[in-house]
């Protein structure tokens, strides 16, 4: 690990006499390493190091001089008075040493601004037409960069650029054509009037596209392929525009040259991702490539076919893949499995064919990544296709009987605990799970204990057997396994669904990244107070998946899993600021406040209490280069509502959900909520706006069965004549409330 201060201290050796090229070269390498690692150099320290480095131009060592050029380019933007080296660079640029001239030009143009460019214009013109290709290329590339600073000066070099186009060196030709093209395009735009520019912008016919398409008929294969690749990568390219490029690539698929076949099938694979129908005509040629001696070509061919094939061709493709997969490496097998996974989602009715193929692959030898790809594919089929659930679970049970990967075994056991109890015959999975307790390592045994507990919690018929197995697990040699068995045994013995839902189904409801950060912070700041779990933000996933997570499979109708509102009640009661709000009467459905593709995805859930309403904002950061801290959502309620407090989300990392809350006090009598809009007007609602309260939020009543008394509806406090605009769903809710009220308050 390099320390910036130590490296800058070593840089004082630049001032020593005589200069030691070897040691100076080593220090310059360290400085460049720190700069490329993102280390911040202050202006003062960077300037001091830069000035010390200028003394190294006294040395004639070629390697040291070239390293100085690189350092000048990197430090040009952070140092002051960098123009001090202009004379030294100009001297090298016009000198006789060709090895110095090219790098000196690039470094000089990096530190030159618009005011200094005219001073070196004569030297740049000479360098562009220089006979040494390295010098000419450096001058042309630097000219392209200098156009951003001063186009008026660079456009005077067009004659020299055209002369360089006749050079024998292909790189000089390439750079000169690029420079001439940029100069001509900009010159054309400057000459066009405003009306002509508008016509140019809206024109659908592009002469550049016609040129690229004409290159498809070139005699050289390299030009043809580059033209086809350019057309395919054009944004918003239509099927008609793709057709000639696909036809050319189809011809390349039968080329005797492996490089051309590989380039063609690789490009067709990219086309198949966005335009699978455009590649359908190439299916026959792609099928012939499955038996290609080059395994890379064969893999790309089969994955392309899997993307473009129809449902009727799935059976035939699976047979072709079977004879092909055994001959390729694990790396290529993973690609094939990923393509099969995408095909499963595209044609779910073909899950049986693909499940059989995946199970055969699962029995073959292979590494961890290969096995994980297959397991993930089977799990996705189990979770998304009810018809394939039992077959998929059976294959996974067979796999964990001889699985050497702990991560995969624990993942499958978790799936068995989640999906197994919901199958018609859940008892058949108990043997596979308990075998893991007997035969596997500590991590797998602990996961098996958790899976057994889920079976006992959801199936009363299996509960006695599960309790016996958990008692055996209490004798395990590992602390984690014994603790889990003891904990689950005591919970299950209570035979209370609420306890099962809280401690077995739900698990840890807090955000794991948030808990990790909070625990780390707690260890850094020792305190006599115990760690408070309530300070950790709640995880967003259990809230919305709970309904599917804890379906009870018992036959007795009077026992139910906790409702979504009960879970919200428990989570909100765990927050100190919300403990005194009373019972939770209603939680709304999530409302999406932003578009899914925006930088920050936000949705809101409204929790209505007696005198308050809590707004829960579930936020997700979609920018991988930003870490947000203390995230809040600013609200602007009406005058009758008062924002009491805002609880921010501690941090919002990339793709990690976070929750922030806003507590609002309700007015004593809100007679304006839900009134109809003014006649003739329209209500507009932006994506970032949220309707604070509706009439439905103020309608609440207690269950007579639960409290022994029915309170009148809060909306009926005082007689008021009002008009409302109700949708069908809201009208049914209000009708139910009115009927219930009349039922219990109509005189006999």
UniProtKB/TrEMBL annotation:
| SUPFAM superfamilies assigned to the protein according to its UniProt record, in alphabetical order | ARM repeat (SSF48371), Clathrin adaptor appendage domain (SSF49348)
All residue ranges annotated as the Clathrin/coatomer adaptor adaptin-like N-terminal domain in the record: 4-495
The molecular function terms of the Gene Ontology recorded here are: structural molecule activity
GO BP, sorted A to Z:
endoplasmic reticulum to Golgi vesicle-mediated transport; intra-Golgi vesicle-mediated transport; intracellular protein transport; organelle transport along microtubule; protein secretion
What main location does UniProt list? cytoplasm
Q: What does this protein do?
A: The coatomer is a cytosolic protein complex that binds to dilysine motifs and reversibly associates with Golgi non-clathrin-coated vesicles, which further mediate biosynthetic protein transport from the ER, via the Golgi up to the trans Golgi network. Coatomer complex is required for budding from Golgi membranes, and is essential for the retrograde Golgi-to-ER transport of dilysine-tagged proteins.
Describe the subunit structure.
Oligomeric complex.
Designated name of the protein? Coatomer subunit gamma
Encoding gene, per UniProt annotation: COPG2
């Amino acid at each position: 690990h390099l320390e910036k201060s130590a490296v800058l201290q070593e840089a004082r050796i630049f001032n020593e006499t005589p200069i030691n090229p070897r040691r100076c070269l080593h220090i310059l390498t360290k400085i460049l390493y720190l700069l490329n690692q993102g280390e911040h150099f202050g202006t003062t320290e960077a300037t001091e190091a830069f000035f010390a480095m200028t003394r190294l131009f006294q040395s004639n060592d070629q390697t040291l001089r070239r390293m100085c050029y690189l350092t000048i380019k990197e430090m040009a933007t952070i140092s002051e008075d960098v123009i001090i080296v202009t004379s030294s660079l100009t001297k090298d640029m016009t000198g006789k040493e060709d090895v110095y001239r090219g790098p000196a030009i690039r470094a000089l143009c990096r530190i030159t601004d618009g005011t200094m460019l005219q001073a070196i214009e004569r030297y740049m013109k000479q360098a562009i037409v220089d006979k040494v290709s390295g010098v000419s290329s450096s001058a042309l590339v630097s000219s392209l960069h200098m156009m951003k600073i001063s186009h008026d000066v660079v456009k005077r070099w067009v004659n020299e650029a055209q002369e360089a186009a006749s050079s024998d060196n292909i790189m000089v030709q390439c750079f000169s054509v690029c420079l001439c093209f940029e100069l001509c395009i900009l010159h054309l735009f400057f000459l066009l009037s405003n009306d002509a520019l508008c016509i140019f912008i809206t024109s659908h016919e592009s002469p550049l596209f016609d040129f690229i398409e004409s290159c498809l008929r070139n005699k050289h294969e390299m030009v043809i392929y580059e033209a086809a690749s350019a057309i395919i990568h054009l944004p918003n390219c239509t099927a008609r525009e793709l057709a000639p490029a696909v036809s050319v690539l189809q011809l390349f698929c039968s080329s005797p040259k492996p490089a051309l076949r590989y380039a063609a099938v690789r490009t067709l694979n990219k086309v198949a991702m966005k335009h699978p129908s455009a590649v359908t005509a190439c299916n026959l040629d792609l099928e012939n490539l499955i038996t290609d001696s080059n395994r890379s070509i064969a893999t790309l061919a089969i994955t392309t076919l899997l993307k473009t094939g129809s449902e009727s061709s799935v059976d035939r493709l699976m047979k072709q893949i079977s004879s092909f997969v055994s001959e390729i490496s694990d790396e290529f097998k993973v690609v094939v499995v990923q393509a099969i996974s995408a095909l499963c989602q595209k044609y779910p009715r073909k899950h049986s064919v693909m499940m059989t193929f995946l199970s055969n692959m699962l029995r073959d030898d292979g590494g961890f990544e290969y096995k994980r790809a297959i397991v993930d594919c089977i799990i996705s089929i189990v979770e998304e296709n009810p018809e394939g659930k039992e077959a998929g679970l059976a294959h996974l049970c067979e796999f964990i009987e001889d699985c050497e990967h702990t991560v995969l075994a624990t993942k499958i056991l978790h799936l068995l605990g989640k999906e197994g109890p919901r199958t018609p015959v859940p008892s058949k999975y108990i043997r596979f799970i308990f075998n893991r307790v007997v035969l596997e390592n500590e991590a797998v045994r602990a996961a098996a204990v958790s899976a057994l507990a889920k079976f006992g919690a959801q199936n009363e018929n299996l509960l006695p057997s599960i309790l016996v197995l958990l008692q055996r697990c209490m004798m395990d040699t590992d602390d984690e396994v014994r603790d889990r068995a003891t904990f689950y045994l005591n919970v299950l013995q209570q035979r209370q669904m609420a306890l099962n839902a809280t401690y077995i189904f739900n698990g840890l409801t807090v955000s794991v990244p948030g808990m990790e950060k909070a625990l780390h912070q707690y260890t850094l700041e020792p305190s006599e107070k115990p760690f408070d779990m309530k300070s950790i933000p709640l995880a967003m996933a259990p809230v919305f998946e709970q309904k599917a997570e804890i379906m009870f499979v018992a036959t007795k109708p009077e026992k139910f899993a906790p409702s979504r509102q009960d879970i919200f009640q428990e989570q909100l009661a765990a927050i100190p600021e919300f403990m005194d709000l009373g019972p939770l009467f209603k939680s709304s459905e999530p409302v999406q406040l932003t578009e899914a593709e925006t930088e920050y995805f936000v949705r809101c859930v409204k929790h209505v209490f007696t005198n308050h309403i809590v707004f829960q904002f579930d936020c997700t950061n979609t920018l991988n280069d930003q870490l947000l801290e203390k995230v809040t959502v600013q609200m602007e309620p009406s005058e009758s509502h008062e924002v009491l407090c805002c609880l921010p989300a501690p941090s919002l990392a990339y793709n990690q959900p976070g929750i922030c809350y806003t507590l609002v006090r309700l007015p004593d009598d809100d007679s304006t909520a839900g009134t109809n809009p003014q006649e003739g007007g329209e209500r507009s609602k932006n994506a970032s706006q949220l309707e604070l309260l509706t009439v439905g939020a103020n309608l609440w009543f207690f269950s007579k069965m639960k409290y022994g008394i029915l309170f009148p509806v809060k909306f009926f406090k005082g007689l008021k004549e009002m008009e409302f605009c109700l949708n069908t769903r809201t009208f049914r809710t209000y009708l139910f409330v009115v009927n219930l009220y009349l039922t219990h308050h109509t005189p006999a």
